[in-house]
Amino acid sequence: MPHLNSAQLAAFAAIVAGGSFEAAGRALHVTASAISQRLKALEDTLGQVLVVRGTPCRATAAGQLLLRHALQVSTLEEELRLRLGMHGAEPARPVRLPVAVNADSLDGWFVEAASACCAHGGIALDLRVEDQGHSAALLRDGEVMAAISASPAATQGCSVEYLGSMRYLALAAPAFCNRYFAAGVDAATLAEAPVLVYNAKDRMQWDFMAAHGGSPDEPPAHFVPSTRAFVELAEQGLGWGMIPEHLAQANVRSGALVEIVADRHIDVGLYWHRWQIASTPLATLSEAVRDAARRHLRAPA
Amino acid sequence: MPHLNSAQLAAFAAIVAGGSFEAAGRALHVTASAISQRLKALEDTLGQVLVVRGTPCRATAAGQLLLRHALQVSTLEEELRLRLGMHGAEPARPVRLPVAVNADSLDGWFVEAASACCAHGGIALDLRVEDQGHSAALLRDGEVMAAISASPAATQGCSVEYLGSMRYLALAAPAFCNRYFAAGVDAATLAEAPVLVYNAKDRMQWDFMAAHGGSPDEPPAHFVPSTRAFVELAEQGLGWGMIPEHLAQANVRSGALVEIVADRHIDVGLYWHRWQIASTPLATLSEAVRDAARRHLRAPA
After folding, report:
1. Non-local CB neighbours of B71 within 8 Å, separated by 6+ positions
2. Which comes out higher in pLDDT, residue B95 or B241?
3. Best of A64, A93, A125, A129 to disrupt the B interface by mutation (most B CBs within 10 Å)?
4. CATH number at A1-84
5. Nearest CA in chain A to B105
6. Cα distance between residue B139 and residue B190, in whole Å
7. So where are chain B's domains?
8. Average pLDDT over every residue of A279-291
9. Coiled-coil annotation: which residues (chains A, B) (predicted)?
10. Shortest CB distance from A103 goes to which of B106, B218, B226?
């Protein structure tokens, strides 16, 4: 197969990244119609429909294979330029590193890894917030090159290593505990006490409830998809919820949040998944992630 | 048309909310197979496919109309019970209020509104983080009953009111400014300076660049979809970015972040969209939103 046309590949990748032909045109400084022609030509070359035209536009199964291929090729090309010392010759474009991170890590220890990794320039981080179920698909489809996830299951073509575990505490405001848990934490009180939940996929609160008196009826639940608002609303007494210890340190120390049951936490292991591909920027990020994890996550018991 | 079977409606709504038959089964304490049978019966009654079976499961166009209908009916029923004083008779289930909020509001002034609205119980907030483009579709499809958005365009069946405006400052660490903007902020320096961007839909940084020396080539960009990590990475010198003033107050006061150009902010008007439907909980939330907006957002010039 001859090498694919790089302008066409760029148009295709920009459509998927931006969600529309117009966004792709803006990103590449050409018209939406030029984008459309390039995509059509690429689809003709490969004999496959690559994009589902919709709102937003998405890659088809064939498109996802191509996306992964394109990202791998450009990573290898960057590596080649780096090893050939070519970055001096032309103005260096930073290498884009798309990475999936779970929200509690992104708002916590991962910031240190991101900062260390980018300290020397040459890397443009493209972070996505995803839960572990979805990040495996992103790795497989080539939308990200690495992911932090609670799942130890390796994705094809990727390596996986254990980073440490994040401790979740069941926290609430003291006034909330007095009101709802004066009689203790059991099936009956848990069924009445409002609970804070990150989103529909967040089962952590239910895991905690299951461990404390069977399966209560669904308590009143507030869905708050922001770690910052989650902690603040817990402090204001809207509900109890499972919060990573590093996000609530100050609140626990000041007494604004207390454990609803002393010393009954849930530890969640985190894993670093990355493509098995020679890439200096990816190696730099992996090292920074390992370092930050060593300092901020708990080692296995 | 006879009234629709409420167990079937609940199964349908739970599939869309949870994304799978299994999640719906867990939420309603029945098997996935029972969920599947109820959905099938509802689809037979209406003569329409309601759910696209996929990962995740999604409502079809017909399903979205039904979803909005179901939420409106249950809101009216709640209102009826409230007015009939029926909440005393049976244990009160809190009224679910699904609301779309932009990330910068959720991590800022909206917390106060949420807290005030829920202070008296009876309301379960179901918050979604959405940009303004998407929240119109969520209102139309009945997935949310209200939304905070930067768009003044009313959605059919909804009222819209102006809340005030949020001021965005172009901020960076002092060392970053010394390194990249010592020669001033213009097309040439903006093309070189790394920029922080919330996600692919966030055009705020480009708006600012367009106002300061034409359209530079795309600078190196880090995508950081968390307001908390965004502010921290700006502070650590990874890039400059547009940050709402209320999220950066402490950092600006301490000198950890400075404006890259003095007094050149962007003000974004925010609007409250809500269904025109009689609902005491929705009215309570609207009042709390208005109050908090009055205290924290800027009045029109």
Report:
1. B13, B98, B142, B145
2. B241
3. A125
4. 1.10.10.10
5. A229
6. 38
7. 1-72, 166-267
8. 91
9. none
10. B226
B277 touches A at CB < 8 Å: no
The CATH code belonging to domain B1-72 is 1.10.10.10
Question: How does residue A92 score in pLDDT terms, banded at 50, 70 and 90?
Answer: low
pLDDT digits (tens, 9 = 90+) for A46-67: 888 889 888 888 888 888 888 8
Q: Which residues of A touch B232 (CB under 8 A)?
A: 111, 115
Are the beta carbons of A226 and B103 separated by less than 8 Å?
yes
Q: Domain A166-267 falls in which CATH fold?
A: D-Maltodextrin-Binding Protein; domain 2 (3.40.190)
Which of A178-207 are b and which e, b meaning 16 or more Cβ less than 10 Å from the residue's Cβ?
eebbeeebeeebbbebbbbbbebebebbbe
Query: What pLDDT was estimated at residue A62?
Result: 84
Residue among B118, B218, B227 minimizing CB distance to A228:
B227
Q: CB-CB: which of A125, A226, A236 is closest to B129?
A: A226
Q: Can you give the pLDDT at residue A205?
A: 93
